[in-house]
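Homework help board

Subject: predicted structure for assignment chain

Our instructor gave us this sequence and asked us to write out the predicted structure in token form, then describe one feature. I got the tokens but I'm not sure how to describe them. Can anyone check?
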Amino acid sequence: MRERRLLVLAILVALATGFIVYNYLAGLDQRVSVVVATTNLGEFTLLESSMLRVASLPAGGVHPRAVSSPSMLEGRVLLAPVDAGQQILITQVRDRGAVGTGNSFVAALEPGERAMLIPSTLARSVGGALAPRDRVDIIFVADQLKLGVSFARVLLQGLRVLDVRSDRGRSLGADRDGLPAGVVVAVTLEQAERLAFALENGQLYIASSGGRDEPEVPTPGAFYESLFSAESWRPDASDSE
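My token output:
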């Protein structure tokens, strides 16, 4: 009787082991499409299509919070480093302009750059038509009472827009009831100093610029004496006098 029980127990154990092994092997044949990184990605990386690819992985090796489509990740900010080939989880990203993520534009800053807000109204910032990744030029109009002279001149060219903020301190794209308060741009420390001085001694106007590789255009500035003179805009006008 004892030997019979041991035999039955051994058969049951063998059946259970076989069932587990069968399910495991069957699971290896089930593949699931997930998004993985094409290269090593650092914290605060702004995800682009070239950084993502779809991989077919065994169902048992797919994280429950993995993403199946690159479109769910493109344009979002990565919160933690990810190695090449590693799954990117939905909990590892956030929207750039999400309410409450005040540093969402940090991802777009390059080494040596700083984010700076230029206070502006609709009338001085292309009617509110600006959006992140746009390029803008900054025009300075001097305050005659402070500087003793009145003129207008292009101060900085080709600055990259990081965000447009509302008067309630939120991204204007997510704050439908807010009014535009200013434009956040990426600048170097030297440019930040110039902007700060300009803000304290005059007014700034924001003009929409062209593409990323558009060269800087030298300008002589505009004064009252030259405002209606076409000759004043020639680079050699002062030399010919």
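Reply (TA_rk): Your tokens look well-formed. For the description, you could write something like this. Confidence is low (pLDDT under 50) at residues 97-103, 237-241. That's the kind of observation they're looking for.
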